[in-house]
Amino acid sequence: MGSSGFSWKLNDHPKLPKGKTIAMVVLDGWGEAHANQYNCIHIAETPTMDSLKKGAPEKWRLVKAHGKAVGLPTDDDMGNSEVGHNALGAGRIFAQGAKLVDSALETGKIYDGEGFNYIKESFATGTLHLIGLLSDGGVHSRIDQLQLLLKGASVRGAKRIRVHILTDGRDCLDGSSVGFVETLENDLVKLREKGIDAQIASGGGRMYVTMDRYENDWEVVKRGWDAQVLGEAPHKFKNAVEAVKKLREIPNISDQYLPPFVIVDDSGKSVGPIVDGDAVVTMNFRADRMVMLASALEYEKFDKFDRVRYPKIRYAGMLQYDGELKLPSKYLVSPPEIDRTSGEYLVHNGVRTFACSETVKFGHVTFFWNGNRSGYFSDKMEEYVEIPSDSGITFNVQPKMKALEIAEKARDAILSRKWDQVRVNLPNSDMVGHTGDINATIVACKAADQAVKMILDAIEQVGGIYVVTADHGNAEDMVKRNKKGEPLLDKNGNIQILTSHTLEPVPVAIGGPGLAPGVRFRTDVPTGGLANVAATVMNLHGFEAPSDYETTLIEVVDK
Ligand SMILES: O=C(O)[C@H](O)COP(=O)(O)O
Ligand SMILES: [Mn+2]
Ligand SMILES: [Mn+2]
């Protein structure tokens, strides 16, 4: 015990043994919803997940994965990977980025902080650039936060403002980008009426421009850099509404995949390259898809792509995206302080952990799981394996993704008996669900189910325990619905495909030959959410959870 009285030592669980191998499986984007034709999980052949659901009722339950249960501002906010994995790993509910930015804007504290005062120094002579995702999705950013920030910065001296937009269609309906750009344009007109030179300067679809993650494809970030910083892009337009409308006409191009464009003046010159003396804010609060650009903006030494020009700017993130790397060093709002995560506790208590996913979800079971912290707690006690994802494709063309490879790695790790916890994320239902391709999503769900089977078979062989859950819904509902729950049609009478996550709960299943006979889900935690899983898993490792963790979902009755 340290001088503060704090100790990493966990108490022994009074009834549950240590030393069982636990498979901790997170199905990304696998919610529970009514069985119908838009529920890809229902339509897909998923015998393994079906058998868990149809098995002992005290070994399968649903938990909340959205809204306040995962630290989001309201219960109308769908879940997402960041908040879901944070809750799963940290065992407590933290006010998340979306909420922290809301309150910093509401109280005005955002303008008193070090980050804003730092960028403000450039307002007199330089341009303020805002780069980020333009939608109301609330997963990475929110347009109303941008609107408030634009107002707030302009009354505090920003005279020249350029917005570099990334169109969404992934956390909101495809096609909705046109409306968001119109809304932003209206705000910019109002600023111009007040004498502020404010314009959209560049844009592109989030999946093709800037918002790659976990270094899957630096080309994506480079395309954004060229448009935002250098002012160069294959498509040039006089205004952004026209840009988005025209680029959407390209066959097979949706909001997520719009090619990069720049806005040019009458002489054909781009209106807003980033130059020496400017201020830049990346306005996403969520880290995974902004931290690559953050490194390009922040680091003098950088070799991921040729930046051609590296302007001397004052740069701040909406949040600090990586607490370990302290990146970026300047930020407008402090991120949630997610400390004492279950991973860190377990390492201190002798639990050896193996974690694996493919690139596009690798940071979910490592970085997000560990409270947005990169790296190992202990390189002797942990091993994290990343399987390279396909890049340069939309995942509906490869819906099986690397599920089999992830399962094989997990199986081998389990059978090696070197690890006490083998943790994976299976991305299929989420990544393919986001494409809106129903047939491909059905294939994706089946592939994920087969991967679960391989992992459960290995657990069977070593006498271990499994915990199978998900981080939020996605593939279980692929259609936008009205308040009554009926599918919405567009003007042509076609159903509106839902590419985003949902508000649905997710399953938690426990079992395996190593599960002590009297273990069952309690019935007195009916409102349980993802944050209750950490204490549950600690119990299954033979420990009691820290007292401030959300309560465990299980109890042990005498058999
Ligand atoms: O970043 C994404 O792909 C989506 O905005 C959210 O999906 P995720 O939360 O499952 O990563
Ligand atoms: Mn997810
Ligand atoms: Mn997703």
Automatic annotation (TrEMBL):
Sequence ranges assigned to domain Metalloenzyme in this UniProt record: 20-544
Residues at the catalytic site: S81 (phosphoserine intermediate)
Principal cellular location given in the protein's record: cytoplasm
Pfam short name (any one): Metalloenzyme
Positions that bind Mn(2+) 1: D430, H434, H501
Subcellular location: Cytoplasm
Pathway stated in the Swiss-Prot or TrEMBL entry: Carbohydrate degradation; glycolysis; pyruvate from D-glyceraldehyde 3-phosphate: step 3/5
Domain BPG-independent PGAM N-terminal residue range list: 101-322
GO biological process: glycolytic process; response to blue light; response to carbon dioxide; stomatal movement
Keywords: Cytoplasm, Glycolysis, Isomerase, Manganese, Metal-binding
GO annotation, cellular component aspect: cytoplasm
Catalytic reaction(s) noted: (2R)-2-phosphoglycerate = (2R)-3-phosphoglycerate
Enzyme Commission code: 5.4.2.12
Domain of life: Eukaryota
GO molecular function: metal ion binding; phosphoglycerate mutase activity
Residues annotated to bind Mn(2+) 2: D28, S81, D471, H472
InterPro entries in the cross-refs: Alkaline_phosphatase_core_sf (IPR017850), BPG-indep_PGM_N (IPR011258), Metalloenzyme (IPR006124), PGAM_B_sf (IPR036646), Pgm_bpd_ind (IPR005995)
Cofactor(s) it depends on: Mn(2+)
Binding positions for substrate per the UniProt entry: H140, R170, D171, R206, R213, R286, A287, D288, R289, K361
Listed SUPFAM superfamilies: 2,3-Bisphosphoglycerate-independent phosphoglycerate mutase, substrate-binding domain (SSF64158), Alkaline phosphatase-like (SSF53649)
Protein family per UniProt: Belongs to the BPG-independent phosphoglycerate mutase family.
Cited PANTHER family: 2,3-BISPHOSPHOGLYCERATE-INDEPENDENT PHOSPHOGLYCERATE MUTASE, 2,3-BISPHOSPHOGLYCERATE-INDEPENDENT PHOSPHOGLYCERATE MUTASE 1
Entry protein name: phosphoglycerate mutase (2,3-diphosphoglycerate-independent)
Organism: Salvia divinorum
Gene name as annotated: PGM1
